[in-house]
Each structure stands twice: as C-alpha cells, then as structure tokens.
Amino acid sequence: MPNAFDPNRRRLLAASAWGASTWAASTWAASTWAASGLSLGFAPAFGQELSPTPQCHDGDEPTVRQTDGPYFKPNSPQRADLVEPNSKGRPLELSGQVLTRACRPVARALVDLWHADERGEYDNSGFRYRGHLFTDGEGRYRFRTILPALYTGRTRHYHVKVQAPDRPVLTTQLYFPDEPANRRDGLFRRELVMRLAEAGDGLAGRFDFVLDLR
Ligand SMILES: [Fe+2]
Questions:
Q1: C-alpha 48 to ligand 1 mean position (Å)
Q2: Which of 209, 174, 211 is nearest to 193 (CA)?
Q3: Contacts (Cβ under 8 Å, ≥6 apart) of 171
Q4: Are 160 and 211 a contacting pair, CB within 8 Å?
Q5: What is the distance in A from the centroid of ligand 1 to the CA of 162?
Q6: What's the 193 CA to ligand 1 centre distance in angstroms?
Q7: Lowest mean pLDDT across 18-27, 34-43, 164-173, 187-196
Q8: pTM of the full predicted structure?
Q9: Which of 37-41, 103-107, 179-183 has the lowest mean pLDDT?
C-alpha cells in the first residue's frame, strides 16, 4: 500500500475525493480554526470516564475508513452540543482522542459528526444533529448528543469525519455494541464499535481515532 504522504497519492486523493476536499476547505475557512479556543465548551455531562478504546499501540493501523453515505452536508455549525430543545432522544456523550499511529495526540483536529435523529431521520434542510469541533491540546474531543434511531437497511451508527490540520480527511462510522442489527448490516465493522456505558439518565460512548500519521 502506498505511503500516505506520497505526493502522487495525495494528488490522486485530492482528485478523486472532491467532495471531501471541498468539505475540508470550506469547513476550515468557516471555522477560523487557527484562532479557535481549545476548550470544548462544556463540562462532562455525566461524570463517567471510560477507558480508551481502541487502546493505542505504537504502529497501530489507522482507523478503518467507511463511506460517508448520502446524508453528509458540508459547513456544519461549530458546536459540541447537538442536543435539540425538547429532544426525546436518550442523551449520549461521545468522547475520545484523536491520535497518530505512534499514539501521539493530534491537537486542533477537526471532528465533524452527523447522524439520524430519534426517529431515524437526517435533517437534510438544516443542521439538526450535525456539528463539528476541534480537539484540544491533548487531542480530546467531546460531543453531547443523542442515541440515534435506526433507519431501514442500517444498524445504529454515527457518521464522522476527522482531519488533522492540512492532512487528508478520515471518513468513517461508529457502531454500538450489542446491537442486534449489527449482524445484518454489511457495512458494520467490529473495529468501529464504541465503548458504551450507562451514565445517569444517558449513555457515555468512547472512541479513539487513529489517523495515518506518525
Ligand atoms: Fe447513516
């Protein structure tokens, strides 16, 4: 497999992943990331810490890539709290770290999250349950959102794009443990299952992304 930093491969990626490149450029531009603070903007809602997953070992494989599906929208708002007023969805705090293959934290990585609502529907006209943030100096991210409902043909999942500054975009999906529909979804990958724990009235999910960087 060619090296990720091979300039020819980079050009190829840029040419073939037009949508992703456009997304990255527009989101960076809209967010003035260089000036953005590193605080994630709110305290952990549920006060429960989960151990890291997957545990990072030096030289680990990068996080598996997956399709972004038909419902991605560029230019999501910069926010860590996606919970809508009067939401009936079960609260879920999704957190973790963005790491290199050498387990170094990636500061100021862009993490964009989008997912279905409590009825299994995506907001394609607005930005409900869509948002992005930047990791702090320790590579940490933390979203407050809800448990998405299933929709036809898919198991329960989140969609995510992760990008270190000026690096290629990682697009992937996160899955839930012990979800019966995991067995019927051809896209499901065990490596992309979050750690999940009860946390008060809600849930706490944890996933660490490993980018193809040293
Ligand atoms: Fe989806």
A1: 27
A2: 174
A3: 20, 65, 66, 67, 68, 159, 160, 161
A4: no
A5: 16
A6: 15
A7: 34-43
A8: 0.78
A9: 37-41
CA of 71 to the centre of ligand 1 (A): 7
* Rounded (10°) CA dihedral 72, 178, 60, 144: 50
In this predicted model, what pLDDT tens digit does every residue of 91-103 receive, in sequence order? Answer: 999 999 999 999 9
User: What is the whole-number distance in angstroms between the Cα of residue 161 and the centre of ligand 1?
Assistant: 13
Helix count and strand count (H, E) for the chain? 2, 9
Read off the tokens for 66. Answer: 């997956």
pLDDT class of 39 with cuts at 50, 70, 90? very low
Place of tokens 């019927």: 184
Question: Which tokens sit at 169?
Answer: 């975009």
